[in-house]
Design a protein that fits this description.
203 residues, eight-stranded antiparallel beta barrel, Porin, 9 strands, globular
């Protein structure tokens, strides 16, 4: 446990030094997130929000979950590094009475000094009537600052799938597979996969 704490602290220090140049861009993305959510709501047939604000209008910050994850970056490659991350999952809304969609904002720090900051969306699908088991599908563009792994350029796209179990009211544990690549934006498009274990709780 002490080794993990030291590793997280060292990784955070190295990653934050490289993350400073991207802070302004991340702030701009965060500022655009509410407008993007409003556009999605207007462009699709959206039912009553799953957790509406007290005045009946959708609010991004009415209900927020915080997810912490830990695992391996480069899980399907020969060179693997330790990865930790945090993700804020904002208020969800139901789409077509089939699944809930929620904006997400997050960051991942790598043991080799790399880091990734992203803004995107997450779909959540209940797998049973009680809502104990759920499937998560996510997609998020963001900014990648390399440590020891060159993914081709700063703009990368993170997609993933995860399976989750609600162990207590508002508390879930999960495991998932995530892919990070630039989608062919640059001449080099190596891509990398992460296997992550997640703990999420309502704030």
């Amino acid at each position: 446990m002490k080794r993990i704490s030291q590793l997280i602290a060292t990784t955070a220090r190295r990653s934050l030094k490289k993350a400073i140049p991207h802070a302004a861009l991340l702030g701009a993305l965060l500022a655009l997130a509410p407008m993007a959510a409003a556009q999605d709501t207007a462009g699709a047939r959206v039912d009553v929000p799953a957790q509406p604000a007290s005045d009946g209008h959708y609010s991004l910050f009415e209900s927020v979950d915080l997810a912490a994850n830990i695992g391996t970056f480069g899980a399907l490659q020969t060179e693997q590094v330790f990865e930790v991350g945090l993700e804020a999952r904002l208020t969800s809304f139901d789409v077509l009475n089939s699944f809930s969609l929620r904006p997400i904002v997050g960051a991942s720090l790598l043991d080799d000094g790399g880091n990734y900051w992203y803004v995107g969306a997450r779909a959540e699908i209940d797998l049973d009537d009680e809502g104990e088991y759920s499937l998560g599908l996510s997609f998020a563009p963001g900014i990648y600052s390399p440590g020891g792994v060159d993914l081709g350029g700063p703009v990368e796209f993170r997609s993933g799938i995860d399976l989750n179990l609600e162990v207590f009211d508002g508390v879930t544990f999960g495991a998932g597979l995530f892919h990070l690549s630039n989608g062919g934006l640059y001449s080099r498009n190596q891509g990398s996969e992460s296997i992550l274990f997640t703990f999420a709780t309502e704030l």
